[in-house]
Amino acid sequence: MTITADERVADVGLARRLLIRPELGAVVGLVVVFVFFAAQSPVFRSPAGIANWLDPAATLGIMAVAVALLMIGGEFDLSAGVLTGTSGLILVTLATRFGFSVWPAMLVGLVVALGVGFANGLIVTRTKLPSFIVTLGTFLMLQGVNLGVTKAITGTVQVSGLRRAPGFEGANAIFAGTVEIGGTSFRVAILWWILVTAGATWVLMRSTAGNWIFAVGGNEQAARAVGVPAARTKIALFMTTAFAAWLVGSILALRYTSVQANIGIGQEFIYIIAAVIGGCLLTGGYGSAIGAAIGAVIFGMADKGIVFLGWDADWFKFFLGAMLLLATLANRLVRRYAEEVRH
Amino acid sequence: MILETRGIGKTFGSVLALRDVSMGVRAGEVTCVLGDNGAGKSTLIKILAGVHQHDAGTLLVDGQEVRFASPRDALDRGIATVYQDLAMIPLMSVWRNFFLGSEPKKGLAFDVAKARRVAREELRAMGIDIRDVDQPVGTLSGGERQSVAIARAVHFGARVLILDEPTSALGVKQAGVVLRYIARARDRGLGVVFITHNPHHAYPVGDRFLLLNRGAGLGEYGKADITPQELTALMAGGAELEELAHELKRE
Hints:
heterodimer, A: 343 residues, mainly alpha, 76% helix, globular, B: 251 residues, alpha/beta, 6-stranded mixed β-sheet, 4-stranded antiparallel β-sheet, 9 helices
């Protein structure tokens, strides 16, 4: 009895098990893009080059992973990009204009960001409005606040001078420093990104909350009927995205020591695209954190690779669109194949 | 009686969805709730499941009056409900679905190995033959899905199993499979409330039959008191059927 049942499991095979992983499309894309650029540019494949394209991958990846969790939970957050700006602006403004040292200023930024995430989540779960609309509202409001408040305080559209604030050195080392590995310096943001990806993967695959995230995204009513706290799960997801926005906003503010009031606008779609390339379904209930992280690497490679090849940077947008289409098609084919054969 | 209603009723605004319905279910018995569309079956089970609160009559668990605050509240008293359409999450694996909302823990983590093992064992104990507990529920047939949901409720110590039209969307063979699991759950000592509009599914497995029509009970019958023909006639409204037969007769 046991043996017959197990035999049928065995012939599913390793290949099939790999094929039905949501990140497969992204892995294929990763290899193709890497080979494409590495073949033509020796700089691209050098350790320094790798450190170079891993850096944009890291800051994008932290956001893409958080957005992927939210998308698996069945929601969008269009305010995530602008919220990185809000967090950075709060940090720099408080530290340069109001006498805060860097750490308390970061703490205030965190509280505000989590508050925005909580508000997003609360409005979405209470009103049952599509999160696309709700967070589009927060997106526009934050965009207005970022510009309006910055102009009112500084008279310009940027705040700068974080370097002189007390506590800058320590915070800078932790969030915006570099690490020497084999003579090449890598941005410390890469470590944060790996940490966030590992944490998110553990939560998704090995925690109770992960089961709830898949469930509320797959079928919220069914999840609630078996006792899953759907509203709490979704609010926590919005707050996770907000936390990631705060982390990235702080990293960028500490790195450049100044923040433009319009930073982050338009990034929200890049996060979603990276998550989709990584295998997330737009309809929720399916996807992977590692996939989103790989999606971010593809972006980092293309972003820097185009520069290394000496192409016009405008081609990046074309590349973006093509990647998105190809990845979505590949993911769909793979999933259909996996489900067909299983019958 | 594990679960009993006495003269229970529910209104939504000006709509009388349910009035004066009395029924009960004992351990190791199947109570069938029969009625046409709009008879009040859904309202009744939603009250039993804790989704709605009744506003007339009394609801009793083990002879004690209760009022469920939520579906969780009903679950905690051992009353599990398997809904026709929202029983399972298609993109999630069988074992993830099986433990959804009541995940086994190992420290802070979800004990994935245990979840896989127990899901496989429980399904086998119910005689449900599923190739691979890692496959997404969306790839199971309708009957298999209902069966997994029933096995899940049994595993989590349900004393009463409420099944909302588990056979209505299924073909003859698949419906037979589900009826067999209903019988198996009954044999394991559960009380089963089986909602259906098909007397041919209800009669073979049922011990008691509650008939609903337009939100009111037409009486509760033991198996000895009613024949399948009477059941069918009562359900369709005997007079209406005769009228229909007359109407359809060749001139």
